[in-house]
Design brief:
Keywords: Cytoplasm. This protein is α+β, with helices and mostly antiparallel strands. The protein is 48% helix and 7% strand. Among the domains are: 24-138, Hypothetical protein (hspc210) (copper amine oxidase-like fold, 2-Layer Sandwich); 167-295, no CATH class; 311-384, no CATH class; 446-509 and 1164-1204, no CATH class; 609-754, no CATH class. The strands form six sheets. A five-stranded antiparallel sheet has the order 6-7-10-9-18, with helices on both faces. A hairpin with a 4-residue loop joins strand 2 (54-62) and strand 3. The chain is globular and about 100 Å long. The model is unreliable at 152-163, 301-306, 402-421, 663-670, 1056-1064 and 1066-1204 (pLDDT under 50).
Length: 1204
């Protein structure tokens, strides 16, 4: 681990030293073994030498300067007599045949022998540090000496060319891996590993192919200059046609991105092994986006011979398939019907240009084909998900065809709706207040799958409430729940109609992906269905503005989500189904909030993301006019124009002339090229114009980069990092002074490389994810031992499948370290957490927000093991990364500063604790757990200094907060009272002593005022959220209320449960099980806990509250748990991920507050709600059997909870 200069990481420092970000070992020359090792100029052996056993000839230049020619033959290796000018394969005099090449090299070179011996004696590095990662990890900084990194002796042997002689069949490799058996755990592990390895190799091939194609080394296979297609390395690569219907270049890029999202959606479906998608990835390189796919046998013929029938070309499904009937088609339609159910897609009918009716389970563009390998393939999935009505002007017009009198009626209705400014589905005054719907640069705005599931859950909640209200209006549930009573059925029908259910007797929500799609016509028979779909899509679009964005803002206020950079902000928004095109609306919501100051770090990230994304689009266009020899100069010029106010080409021209004079050459005329004429003002206008078109913001970015710095607190260095990560640029590792006004801070020599940026399909690790979720479930119930066993199992499975080099493996090891620490084994926790840090650095990046958090946790475990120096270095490393990525003004900085204040010397302690208090007060207010804890720590430090008056002031503030938050009788409040009393007594004692003995008297502090190492560790554990303090009385109230609701529900359902003394016994028994502190539970669920979903008879063990009396307060996330009591969301701490239920939930969330990953997306087939009135009525009233609650999935059992 690297040393960090404490002066540059101290509070208030404006220095951002980049040289400390990467290890110094990468900046030193590795020890030399040989000067050169290559194939000899006499290689390969001639025919007569092959017959005598010669394999190859090698030339070696030793460190001593000796040139040797070596023969590799059947017997081994020996020196021959060949020279650079003559060929003589005979063995040299006194030459010995060695079985190993290294033995021969040790014999001829003493320097090689010494270095090689040292290498063998070196301790072996852990596999997680040396094993190649499955996918490329971007790094925006590279070593200062780029030429040394290029040095590769193996590549000069030319052996890698032979390995690439055979073109791989990527589709067959991927489908073959997916078709492997899955009957046992071992078979599933082998299958998951094979799929991951094939996908990783495919992505690496895509990166290499993109560089080769865009560099111009591959000829297109078609004659279309507007849409060139390329075949390279078994890959089909193309840019896609720029259609005016979809929005030209922006629409083309959106279609490629949405195609990948559609492939991901169908790839994640379980139980659909018969439906295949091609291996797909998209790659951005030098401003060009390419789609890459594997080649499926026989599918290429579908684009040839248009005169042949669709069936002859393998086309079985789609608008162009035509009417046909075959067993293969019926099998494909059954698979598509299953997939439509899982993806909440509606079966519908569209009209072809010829007027034929075609039933579809997908978007109108999708095609189902039978490949020559006998597999069914689904292509063209870019419109798989429903349209976003907020950005479809078609949402204000009728989509379906109308004829005759209907047209007159529709036009009249349109006039009425136009005058009323609202159409069915929009909330009242929605269009006026939100400015939506509006146009967008492309017409492929689709809803995210997370939003679709969240909206379905929202509608299901509305449905159950409506059923309950209607039953109450008709005499109550007890009178209507009989099977012979039609009132329950009528209530179900009325609720289904009001919420927009496809069925009139059960809740079923699906969406038509072709509604609001230009160029799609529907038959008149579909008018009623299309009207309903238009209404639902308007409601879903408005749901983003009215529910999801406010929920995200509220979550940020409660510090359950604290994005630190663009990646974490994107992840947090996507978890709630919010597309990044809503960034402008997010910024407006923050501006209109009464807590704008507390949300300034979110606003900073939002504005930075808007700026870098708009700048990237301008950069992509800018690069199209740059030739290869001028690439570095053009990129550096663009960055200077972007970050330096009023930058002009004259800066570059003067620097170029000076360098040319020093080198004795004439200055080039590069300043006359088109790219060199770009100025900072022109670039800024282009960026602002793009931001206004895309995000609907005006004058938000100001007139230059200094506006972002002054008004939002953005750092130019953070903007530079974000831009490089998004474009694939890598800069030389050095300190950049971006505030300069008279010279270019970035030179062409600082541009080391530009890497392809690849987006690919993510392959799940099924068994490991299931074990991880089971561990989280145990942890939420307070079962540490069972959670520990499951986490060890999950870590083992991740190691088997992906060698631990996976983001989910990092989260698993981090949680394992936490549980191990809570069990009292700090040494093992430190070891496991160190592994998590290495994984995060290698897979996510050395400065990823998750890496920052892992460093902080490692610091805690290191301190617990007595490694104070290492702990300080970990926290200083985390703080330096925070300063680089975001800046000091972030809530997590207060966490790191509090920990540093607990470990450092007196003067430094006060400096960091005061800064933590300033940040906590600013972000949380005075009545907050974090602020109160920091006040207590400051009072503790003041006592050690002897400043009892200041200590009393801070402890009084802490006591006020604890009393307001916990009450008078809580142990934390009592602890604060006791500490304040001790301070007061000591202050009186010191004052009395000074009066009696004079000013020269030495103050004597009592022993209790100096915290022990155990107390400091406990406080550090609470600061970082590893363990939390909870309110015991709130848990008791929750238990009592839970059992009362059980009894009430059982009484209404006619089920005999427990009463009287049995309830008391059960409460006592459950209290007895709550003796372990897990640190992973947020209190305040409203009945939607996991145990209730599994049935009411199994009583859930309550998590344990930690009533520690160490004088430390609770962590920030605890407040979130208290404030979200009525939201029914179970939380996770700073080192864990939330439990995600459902078999279809294969994605593991990133954990930790700064990553914003605390909310689980909803599953369409399993609503995350307790047993409701509607479910009970449906199970009794519909045909006397259990109903299908959502999309045909069985409802929750009757023994579940009935909502009050």
């Amino acid at each position: 681990m690297m040393e960090v200069h404490r002066s540059t990481s101290s509070p208030g420092s404006s220095e951002r030293p980049l040289m400390a970000l990467l290890p110094h070992s990468s900046q030193t020359e590795a020890p030399g073994y040989l000067k050169d090792l290559s194939l000899s100029c006499w290689n390969p052996p001639p025919g007569h030498r092959k017959l005598q056993g010669d394999f190859m000839y090698i030339t070696v230049f030793t460190v001593e300067g000796r040139r040797c020619d070596i023969t590799s033959c059947v017997k081994g290796f020996f020196l021959n007599r060949s020279t650079e000018d003559s060929f003589d394969p005979r063995p040299a005099q006194s030459s010995v045949v060695y079985h190993c090449l290294t033995d021969l090299l040790c014999h001829i070179s003493p320097a090689f022998k010494q270095t090689f011996t040292t290498l063998k004696a070196r301790p072996q590095q852990p596999s997680v540090e040396v094993t190649p990662t499955p996918y490329h990890t971007p790094s925006w900084l590279g070593p200062p000496c780029a030429s040394r990194a290029h040095k590769n002796s193996y590549s000069r042997l030319g052996l890698e060319k032979q390995a690439a002689a055979q073109t791989p069949d990527w589709n067959e490799e991927l489908q073959g891996a997916r078709d492997l058996p899955q009957r046992s755990v071992e078979e599933r592990l082998q299958r998951d590993r094979a799929v991951l390895q094939v996908n990783g190799a495919f992505v690496r091939a895509v990166m290499q192919g993109a560089e080769t194609v865009i560099d111009g080394f591959v000829e297109p296979v078609n004659g279309n200059p507007d849409d060139p297609a390329f075949l390279w390395g078994g890959l089909f690569m193309s840019q896609g046609a720029a259609s005016g219907m979809f929005g030209n270049e922006r629409g083309r890029r959106a279609a490629q991105r949405l195609e990948l999202r559609g492939v991901q959606a169908y790839s994640d479906l379980e139980g659909l092994q018969g439906l295949h998608t091609l291996p797909t990835a998209i790659v951005d390189y030098r401003g060009v986006r390419l789609s890459a796919q594997g080649l499926a046998p026989g599918l290429e013929s579908s684009e040839e011979g248009e005169e042949s029938s669709p069936a002859a070309r393998g086309l079985l499904y789609g608008v162009n398939a035509g009417p046909q009937e075959s067993p293969h088609r019926r099998q494909l339609l059954a698979l598509l019907a299953h997939s439509a159910k899982s993806l909440s897609l509606q079966r519908h009918v569209v009209l072809t240009p010829n007027g034929h009716k075609v039933p579809l389970f997908t978007s109108v563009d999708a095609q189902g084909l039978l490949g020559a390998d006998g597999r069914f393939y689904l292509l063209d999935l870019f419109r798989t998900f429903p349209a976003d009505a907020n950005f479809c002007l078609e949402a204000e017009t009728e989509t379906h065809a109308v004829t005759g009198d209907e047209k007159t009626d529709k036009s009249c209705e349109q006039d009425v709706e136009k005058n009323g400014c609202e159409k069915e589905g929009w909330p009242r005054n929605y269009c006026a207040t939100s400015g939506l719907p509006r146009s967008f640069p492309h017409s492929l705005c689709r809803l995210r799958p997370e939003l679709v599931q969240a909206f379905i859950q929202h509608k299901h909640t509305q449905f159950t409430e409506l059923v309950r209200e209607k039953l109450d209006d008709n005499g109550g549930f007890e009178n209507c729940a009989l099977a012979s009573d039609s009132r329950s059925t009528d209530a179900m029908r009325a609720a289904c109609k009001e919420v927009g259910s496809l069925s009139d007797i059960i809740f079923e929500m699906r969406f038509n992906p072709n509604v609001f799609s230009p160029g799609v016509a529907f038959p008149p028979s579909e008018n009623a269905s299309i009207n309903l779909q238009e209404r639902l899509l308007r409601e879903a679009a408005a749901f983003i503005i009215t529910h999801q964005i406010p929920a995200f803002i509220q979550s940020c206020l409660q510090i359950r989500e604290a994005p630190m950079d663009g990646a974490s902000l994107k992840h947090a928004l996507h978890l709630r189904g919010i597309n990044l095109r809503y960034l402008g609306h997010v910024s407006k919501s923050i501006t209109q909030s009464e807590h704008t100051e507390r949300l300034r770090h979110i606003m900073r990230s939002v504005i930075g993301e808007i700026f870098t994304r708009s700048a990237r689009r301008v950069f992509n266009t800018f690069l199209q006019g740059v030739d290869i020899p001028s690439f570095s100069a053009a990129v550096s010029h663009f960055l200077n124009c972007l970050l330096v106010p009023n930058f002009t080409a004259s800066f570059v021209g003067e620097e170029t002339k000076k360098k040319s004079r020093r080198r004795g050459r004439t200055a080039s005329s590069s300043e006359n090229t088109p790219w060199s004429l770009l100025t900072g003002a022109e670039l800024w206008n282009l960026v602002c114009q793009d931001a206004a078109e895309t995000y609907d913001i005006s004058n938000c970015l100001g007139s230059g980069p200094n506006h972002l710095v002054e008004h939002f607190g953005l750092q130019k260095l953070s903007l530079l990092r974000e831009f490089c990560l998004k474009t694939g640029l890598q800069l030389r590792l050095r300190d950049y002074f971006l505030e300069t006004q008279n010279k270019a801070p970035i030179s062409p020599d600082d541009i080391l490389n530009i890497f392809p940026v690849v987006k690919h399909v993510h392959m799940p690790v099924g068994d490991a994810v299931n074990a991880f979720h089971a561990a989280q479930n145990f942890l939420q119930k307070g079962l540490l031992e069972q959670a520990h066993e499951k986490l060890k199992e999950a870590a083992y499975l991740y190691g088997r499948v992906c060698d631990d080099l996976h983001p989910d493996a990092c989260y698993c090891n981090s949680l394992l370290a936490k549980v191990t620490f809570l069990q009292g084994n700090s040494a093992e926790a430190r070891s496991v957490q160190l592994k998590a840090v290495v994984i995060s650095e290698r897979v996510l990046g050395f400065d990823h927000p998750n890496t920052i958090q892992q460093y902080a946790l490692l610091g805690v475990y290191a301190y617990a093991g007595g490694e104070t120096a290492l702990a300080q270095r970990c926290f200083f490393r985390a703080r330096l990364l925070i300063l680089t990525v975001h800046g000091e003004d972030h809530p997590y900085t207060a966490t790191v500063d509090s920990c540093l204040g607990l470990m450092l010397t007196e003067d430094q302690t006060g400096q960091f604790l005061k800064n933590a208090l300033r940040l906590n007060t600013s972000f949380f207010g005075l009545i907050d757990f974090n602020t109160a804890l920091t006040q207590h720590l400051l009072a503790q430090w003041m006592c050690r200094k002897g400043d009892y008056r200041s200590a009393m002031t801070h402890e009084k503030e802490a006591l006020t907060a604890f009393t307001s938050l916990f009450g008078e009788d809580h142990p934390q409040t009592s602890c604060s009272k006791e500490f304040l009393s001790t301070i007061t007594k000591q202050a009186v004692k010191v004052e009395r002593t000074l009066r009696q003995a004079g000013a020269d008297c030495t103050e004597q502090t009592v022993e209790c005022l100096n915290p022990t190492t155990e107390t400091v560790l406990e406080q550090m554990v609470l600061v970082t959220g590893i363990r939390r303090i909870t309110r015991s009385d709130r848990f008791q109230e929750y238990k009592q209320k839970h059992l009362e609701r059980k009894v009430a529900a059982a009484k209404e359902l006619g089920i005999k449960l427990i009463t009287g003394s049995a309830i008391t016994d059960l409460i006592n028994a459950r209290e007895g099980t709550s003796n372990k502190e897990t640190g992973s539970w947020k209190e305040g669920q409203d009945g939607r806990n996991k145990a209730e979903e599994n049935g009411g008879d199994n009583q859930e063990q309550q998590p344990v509250e930690d009533e520690s009396k160490s004088g430390a307060s609770v962590s920030a996330e605890e407040k979130a748990g208290e404030q979200s009591k009525d939201e029914g969301e179970s939380g996770s701490d700073a080192a864990a991920v939330d439990l995600k239920k459902g078999k279809n939930d294969s994605e593991t969330e990133e954990h930790g507050a700064m990553n914003g990953a605390v909310d689980s997306p909803f599953s369409p087939s399993s609503p995350k709600s307790k047993m409701t009135w509607a479910d009970v009525v449906g199970s009794k009233a519909v045909n006397g059997t259990g109903s299908k609650a959502v999309n045909g999935v069985d409802s929750v059992s009757v023994s579940g909870e009935a909502k009050e």
